Amino acid sequence: MIRPALLTLSVLLAPTAAHAADELTTADHLAAMTLGVADGATVMVLGSEAATVERTAPGIYGGVVQTDGTAYDLTFVETDPCVFQATFAWQGEAFSIQFHPHNMQSVDFVSPQSAAEFTRYRVQLTGAPAMVLSQEDGEWVDAGDTSPIGTTLTLEQLEAAAQKVLEACPYSAETES
Question: Is 0.85 surpassed by the pTM of this model?
Fold first, then answer.
């Protein structure tokens, strides 16, 4: 199970870098796959609240929590080939997680449940350890292999994003511990 800090972040994050306005990168697809976020989408935040998403520049996204108007920002950066760091900033706090899609063999979106503003899914990752890392006491630790998301993206859009990520960052057996 993904640790609570990651659950909070996964519920709040948005999509990622693009070289041009219409061109999506692996980071964009990874953000959609793991967080259900894309430009113009509505996503689940804080466990149940809805928030808008807007790409403001390559790698920079923002949005507003609909119930209280609180703004948030997200940067999603490829720090090494097929290693991505997402940093979420909200109400003066920042939190980062890392995604290692080269450790992922498959991605499933299970248990869809319709809600008023979005559809909830559980993202289930299969692969080597350390697919998703969160920071605890300054150290990167394995955050688990499942996370809930809520999004207006369709199952087909989520699956297409996952396919793009898995194609761009193929599973490497050498990454297994």
Answer: no
**Which residues on neighbouring strands pair with residue 88, listed in sequence order?**
74, 95
Q: Quick check: 33 and 41 in contact, CB under 8 A? A: no
Tokens representing residue 22 in the block: 């219409």
DSSP state of 19: S
User: What's the pLDDT tens digit per position in 107-138?
Assistant: 999 999 998 899 999 999 999 989 999 998 98
AA identity, residue 137: D
Q: Which CA distances in Å does 50 have to 21, 37, 66, 95, 136?
A: 25, 12, 6, 20, 27
- Non-local (6+) Cβ contacts of 106 within 8 A are 125, 126, 127, 166
- Of 60 and 66, the structure prediction assigns the larger pLDDT to 66
- 95 C-beta neighbours (distance < 10 Å), count: 17
